Amino acid sequence: RSYMVTNTVTTCGSAVVVAVEVTINHVNPTISGGDVATCGTTTLTASSAATNATYIWYKDNIDISSETGSTSTLEVTTTGVYKVRVTNTDTGCAETSATKTVTINALPVCSITGSSEVTYGTTNDYIAAASMSTYAWSISGDGTISGGDNSHPTVSIITSAAGAYTLSVTITNSNGCTSTCDKTVYVDKKALTVTATGPTKEYGTALSTQTLSAINFTTSGEINGDAVATVTLTPDANGTSVTRAAGLGYVVTPSAAAGTGLANYSISYSPYNGTVAQKALTVTATGPTKEYGTA
Q: What is the average per-residue pLDDT within 114-125?
């Protein structure tokens, strides 16, 4: 805004009228938005009539020395009353903005408590921070939320396969502030034992490697409908020998179990320790003959 100022000067009996134009260069600094209540952090932005300007930010009437210079924005992380003094570097004029009250509500501390390593087929509980207004759980990978209930501080997770799953929860506190955290859980394979129970062998016979279903082996450890369908049974040299004497031992080793869902198991094999059975031998008498009167 410009003003015309008239000054009358009397000198040597005559009056001289001098007109001086005075221009007021307002900076007009403002901080965008109304008073702020927010979660965690917010950004204040100063604007002014100055094309080129420097800024000094204040919190509770104390200048923030780290926020002095050409930056027109301020990242706010603590509650307080803020203002900014803007200097027009073209004119040297400076003005201070109106204050803005900022309330920073703390973010809730998010955590998940529970096992980081579990076994296939087990159900495990996980607990989020207590006393929140809302909970929202989600899961990805080799696990499912039992019953699909994801709105409580505690959830039960059923392992669906060996591998890993990531469990996430978003919590909201009474101020409406939210935090999200996650936990990676590794699912170990379940123990499965295959035990050879045969085949038997008698003297004079030779065993050979066979892939069998349902006979000469047992299993323990399967769950969820998983099953061993076939097992390869391999005899040692004593088992393949036709001359191995009766009463002596031989070993049959199981391996290569195949079936449904077996990728979820750590399979161990127990051999069969057999004993060569005696072969049946029949002795048939063919004489001597006898006639009447002889003994």
A: 96
In this structure, what token pair is assigned to residue 181?
Answer: 């955290």
- 60-94 confidence digits (pLDDT tens): 999 997 777 788 999 999 999 999 999 999 999 99
Q: HSE (CB half, 13 Å, CA atoms) of 65?
A: 0
Beta strands in 236-284 (DSSP E): 249-260, 265-270, 272-275
Question: For residue 33, what is the DSSP state?
Answer: S
d(CA 169, CA 181): 6
pLDDT tens digit sequence for 239-293: 999 999 999 999 999 999 999 999 999 999 999 999 999 999 999 999 999 999 9
* Type of residue found at 290: K
Identify whether the C-beta of residue 264 lies closer than 8 Å to the C-beta of residue 257: no
The answer, yes or no, to whether the previous bond of 199 is cis (omega within 30 of 0) is yes
Q: Please name which of 154, 168, 179, 161 lies closest in space to residue 118, comparing C-alpha atoms.
A: 161
Which residues, 6+ apart, have CB-to-CB distance to 288 below 8 Å? none
The H or E element containing residue 171 is strand 163-172
Work out the widest C-alpha separation in the chain, in whole angstroms: 199
Distance CA 46, CA 106 (A): 25
CA 200 to chain centre: 51
Helix (H, G, I), strand (E, B) or coil at 247: coil
